[in-house]
Amino acid sequence: MASSFLVVTVALLVPTFIIVFHSLWMAFVEALWLTPRRIKRVLERQGIKCLPFRILIGNLPELAALCEEAKSQPLSCIKHDYAAYAIPYYYRWIEEYGDNFAFWQGSQARFFLTNPDDVKEVLYSRSPHISRPKRRPDGVKLIDNGLLQIEGERWSFHRRTLNPGFLPEKLKSMIPIMSRCTMEMIERWSTKNVKKHEIDVFTELKPLSADIIARTAFGSSYAEARQIFELQQEQLLLEGKIQSRPFIPGVRFIPTAFNRHCWRVEKRIEELTLRIIEKRTQRRKLDQHEDAQDDDLLGLMIDAMEDRGVERKTMSMGMADIIGESKTFFAAGQETTSTCISWTLMLLAAHPEWQERVREEVRTACDAVGFPTSDSLHRLKLLSMVLNESLRLYPPLPIMLRMSKKDVRVGKTLVPKGTVMMLPIIAFHHDQRYWGPDANEFRPDRFRDGSSKASQSKSSVFLPFSSGPQFCIGQPFALQQAKIVISAILLRYRIIISPQYRHSPIFAFILQPEFGIPLLFESI
Ligand code: HEM
């Protein structure tokens, strides 16, 4: 009896094992060998040069070597023509292979779109076959279920739900919170009680941006959200490590120390986000009535979950969506904005004549407490020009990515299914063909008549917030915050580049100052 049971079990298990093993093996061969071979064939047939493909590692070693080589020759002074330092592989490979080339990030094909018309075509495309790339299966779950990862009808619904959170009236109501958070930071600085002191603005402004996002969008204080931000920073570091190594299917399920750490961080973020959301739903129940503080992003999303408001018949948001969007807004809104403000302060410190001009403008625009008002914010023309020039020279998101889910035509190229298209915004922003011979100089004047007239190109080559339907939803929020923070600082301090400052913009998801931005703050 027992032996026949064993025979039956073995007879069932062996074929199952063979089928599972065979499917895994085929998926492995497809992802790591057949797909890259096909992409290479399609691209090369069109005369596009593909860098040599090696299984698993692709061109990761060359890429790392080029970055190392660039870093071994540090920039000697504050030069704005640093693009070849931040993304050396792009410029080196263009030199070697011409404008049309593809390389291999592990087994994934990456193809730079070097023509602004092609970039525009992709950004405005309504094709369901072009999307933002999904995270690597073994990547960290930083922004799952949020606008940056979802598609189609679901994306449209989320975007429509969240848009009211960024309307002019709503932004206006955020000015007092943004000013209060900034004041608290400045008060902390002033306890140092010395005429001149050094501040690394890159480090100091991160928690400020986090605080502002937490309070304006989620009604919670930074103290509560602090852990989420810190854990997201850690996730970015973990993602960096994952990206620099080859993708091996299945390895992500093995409970290695690294994987277990990733899982713990993910779980903790979800728990903390859920806690913020639950606190709000509890408060709603207790209050019974809609209070004025409830129409922030979190309030809008809870409305969509609870089926309130218009247009909720066919779609609604679930808890996973709210967690996803909350994580996305924390991740997308914090570091981009603080980095933009940090680079702008560096530029103003490096160009004292502009610092003086902007300070004069700010003086006339601020109220008695030293902050711009909702009316005067729009009159800060010089500051807007400086911010645009800063976003041009130091775009926080220097490269955007899109994925072809089927063979798609972009301009003259047939981009094969499974290729990641790289949109090198930073290269467009520094290109003399579009900006003239002074492309790498700080010249805010070029934005005097607005951003559309600033370049000499017919196509749009100024894309710090992207363009098309998926452009940055947080653009007005970020610019308002930048104006408030910079105005408040300039009114109180003269800023000077510290002797400790080392100019080293590097590309690690965003364009970061590798050694921070230490500036000397002199009280006025
Ligand atoms: C200076 C600061 C900022 C810059 C330079 C910036 C830049 C960008 C860019 C280039 C994109 C498009 C990315 C892509 O298509 O791959 C984007 C999308 C997005 N940004 Fe920003 N961003 C900034 C601030 C913010 C802020 C403050 C928030 C939130 C409060 C935010 C939330 C988002 C979201 C949710 C998306 C996805 C939009 C969609 O798909 O509908 N960003 N941002």
Structure description:
With 524 residues, this protein is an alpha+beta fold. The protein has a single domain (2-137, 151-523), classed as Cytochrome P450 (Cytochrome p450). Helices cover 54% and strands 10% of the residues. The protein contains 18 helices and 13 strands. It has helices spanning 2-45, 60-71, 83-86, 88-97, 116-124, 152-162, 168-190, 201-218, 222-243, 257-287, 297-305, 319-350, 352-365, 374-377, 381-393, 425-429, 432-435, 475-492; strands at 49-50, 101-105, 108-112, 130-131, 196-200, 400-404, 408-410, 413-415, 420-423, 493-497, 505-508, 510-513, 518-523. It has a 6-stranded mixed sheet with strand order 1-2-3-9-6-4, with helices on both faces. A hairpin with a 2-residue loop joins strand 2 and strand 3 (108-112). The longest helix is centred in the first third of the chain and has 44 residues, at 2-45. It binds protoporphyrin IX containing FE. Protoporphyrin IX containing FE binds next to helix 12 and helix 18.
Count of extended strands: 13
> Could you tell me the radius of gyration in angstroms?
25 Å
Helical content (DSSP H or I, runs of 4+): 40-55%
Portion in beta strands: 5-15%
| Secondary structure category | alpha+beta
Shape: globular
Give the strand order, joined by hyphens, for the main sheet. Answer: 1-2-3-9-6-4
- Could you list the spans in which at least 5 consecutive residues all have pLDDT below 50? none
Please tell me the total number of domains. 1
CATH homology-level superfamily: Cytochrome P450
What is the CATH domain class? Answer: Mainly Alpha
CATH level-two architecture: Orthogonal Bundle
Q: Tell me the major beta sheet.
A: 6 strands, mixed
CA-CA gap between termini = 94 Å
* Count of individual helical segments: 18
User: Could you please say which CATH topology applies here?
Assistant: Cytochrome p450
**Hetero compounds:** protoporphyrin IX containing FE
Mean pLDDT: 89
Keywords: Heme, Iron, Membrane, Metal-binding, Monooxygenase, Oxidoreductase, Transmembrane, Transmembrane helix
GO molecular function, one term: monooxygenase activity
Cofactor: heme
Protein name: Cytochrome P450
